[in-house]
Design brief:
- By secondary structure, the protein is an alpha/beta fold.
- Helix content is 41%, strand content 19%.
- It contains 15 helices and 16 strands.
- It has an 8-stranded parallel β-sheet with strand order 4-14-13-12-11-10-6-5. Strands 1-2-3 form a 3-stranded antiparallel β-sheet.
- Strand 13, helix 10 and strand 14 (264-266) form a beta-alpha-beta unit.
- It starts with 6 loop residues before the first strand and ends in a 6-residue tail after the last helix.
C-alpha cells in the first residue's frame, strides 16, 4: 500500500505526465484541476455535486479562514473536512497570495506580514510559523509554504529580494511542520526573469519536500510569457514529485501547461466567470447575456454531459442570468466546473491511451477561438 505523500509517475508523453498522488484523504489522479473553495465552500456548489462532477481535491484559503471563523473553531469542530462536509483531499493556500492581492493593506518584514483585516480593519499577523500552524489546525492534506508573491511588473532587484525571503521563509515553514498527514509544498518564485526562476528552483528543490509549485505567475503578465516560463521551468522540476502551477487558468492554459509538464492546477476562473455569465464550451466561450440566445432552445453545449446542458436551454439560462436569479449562478457554475474537470479527465485518458499529441492539438485548436463580447 502506498504511503501518504507518495507520487507515482505512471506515463509520460514528451513532457506531459500522468501521475497519482497519495494523500491522507485519498488518491489524486493527475493531471488535475482543483476547484477553489476560498472560505470553506466552492461558491454555489454542494460538496456532493463537486464529487459527482469529478472534483478530486478542492482548495481552502488560510488567510480568509483564519479571519472567519478562525482555525480554532474549525479544529474544535473536527477540522475543515468535517466542517464543510468534504471527504476528499484539501489543499490550503498559505496566505501568501494575499501578500500580493492586499498590497495596500499589508506591511512585509523578515518576520512575516502584517495585514489589515478585510473584515474590520484590525491587525492580522501571518508568519511562516503561523501560516503552518493555521493550515495544520485546519487539517489540510496539502499545505503551501508561506511566500511573498510579487506583482507584475516589478524590477529584477525587487523580485530577487522577495524571492530570497521566500527561500528563508521556506526553511522556517519546514521546521514548523509537525503534522505528518499534511504534505508541505515549496513554491518557486522569480517572476519572468529566467536566471532568478532557475535560482529559485534550485533553492526550493534543495529542500526535500512532497511536492513543488510554481508561484507568482498569472499575476498580470502577458499570457505568452507565462507559458514560455512554464515550458522552461516545469521540465526541470523534480520528476518524481508533483508539479503544481498556482492560480492558472483558462482551459487553453491548462492544456498548454500539461504539455509543459505540470500536474496540478487551481483557479477561481471557472466559478467566478460563471457567475458573470461567461461559459466555456467545446465550441468556444458563450456570453449568455447576448441577445442571440433570447429564443435559443438548444443546449449550452451539445457535446456536454453536465446537468445544465442536459436539462436547460440557452434561452432559459439567459433569462435566469438577466433576472439575477440564484439558479443562474448554480447552473452556470455546474457547467463550467464540469467543462474543466471533464477536460482534465480527457487529458488523463489520452495520456493513458498514448494519444496525448492528438488530444492536445484538437483542444488547442478549439480553445484558440477568439472570444466575442
Amino acid at each position: 500500500m502506498a504511503e501518504v505523500g507518495q507520487f507515482e509517475l505512471l506515463k509520460t508523453a514528451n513532457q506531459a505526465r500522468r501521475g497519482r498522488l497519495h494523500t491522507a484523504h485519498g488518491v489524486i489522479e493527475t493531471p488535475i484541476f482543483m476547484p477553489v473553495g476560498t472560505k470553506g465552500t466552492v461558491k454555489a456548489m454542494l460538496p456532493e455535486e463537486l464529487h459527482d462532477l469529478g472534483a478530486q481535491i478542492i482548495l481552502g484559503n488560510t488567510y480568509h479562514l483564519h479571519l472567519r471563523p478562525g482555525e480554532e473553531i474549525i479544529k474544535k469542530l473536527g477540522g475543515l473536512h468535517k466542517f464543510m462536509n468534504w471527504s476528499g483531499p484539501i489543499l490550503t493556500d498559505s496566505g501568501g497570495f494575499q501578500v500580493f492581492s492586499l498590497s495596500k493593506l499589508r506591511k512585509i518584514s523578515e518576520s512575516g506580514v502584517e495585514f489589515r483585516s478585510t473584515l474590520d480593519g484590525s491587525k492580522v499577523f501571518l508568519s511562516p510559523e503561523k501560516s503552518m500552524q493555521v493550515q495544520m489546525d485546519l487539517g489540510a492534506d496539502i499545505i503551501m509554504a508561506f511566500d511573498e508573491c510579487p506583482p507584475y511588473p516589478a524590477s529584477e532587484e525587487q523580485i530577487e529580494k522577495s524571492m530570497e525571503m521566500t527561500h528563508r521563509w521556506l526553511k522556517r515553514c519546514k521546521e514548523s511542520m509537525t503534522r505528518k498527514e499534511s504534505l508541505l509544498f515549496g513554491i518557486v518564485q522569480g517572476g519572468l526573469y529566467t536566471d532568478l526562476r532557475l535560482k529559485s528552483l534550485k533553492a526550493v528543490t534543495s529542500e526535500d519536500l512532497p511536492g513543488y509549485a510554481l508561484g507568482g505567475l498569472s499575476v498580470g503578465e502577458p499570457i505568452d510569457q507565462m507559458h514560455e516560463m512554464v515550458r522552461l521551468v516545469a521540465p526541470q522540476m523534480p520528476s518524481m514529485k508533483p508539479r503544481y502551477l498556482m492560480g492558472v487558468g483558462t482551459p487553453l492554459d491548462l492544456i498548454t501547461c500539461i504539455d509543459a509538464g505540470i500536474d496540478m492546477f487551481d483557479c477561481v476562473m471557472p466559478t467566478r466567470v460563471a457567475r458573470n455569465g461567461h461559459l466555456f464550451t467545446s465550441q468556444g466561450v458563450v456570453r449568455i447575456k447576448r441577445n442571440e440566445h433570447r429564443e435559443d432552445p438548444s443546449a449550452l453545449d451539445p457535446e456536454c454531459g453536465c446537468y445544465t446542458c442536459k436539462n436547460y436551454s440557452r434561452a432559459y439560462l439567459r433569462h435566469l442570468f438577466l433576472s439575477g436569479e440564484i439558479l443562474a449562478s448554480r447552473l452556470n457554475t455546474i457547467h463550467n466546473l464540469y467543462f474543466y474537470l471533464n477536460l482534465m479527465a480527457g487529458a488523463r485518458r489520452a495520456l493513458d491511451e498514448d494519444r496525448w499529441p492528438s488530444f492536445r492539438d484538437h483542444w488547442l485548436t478549439r480553445l484558440a477561438k477568439p472570444v466575442s463580447d
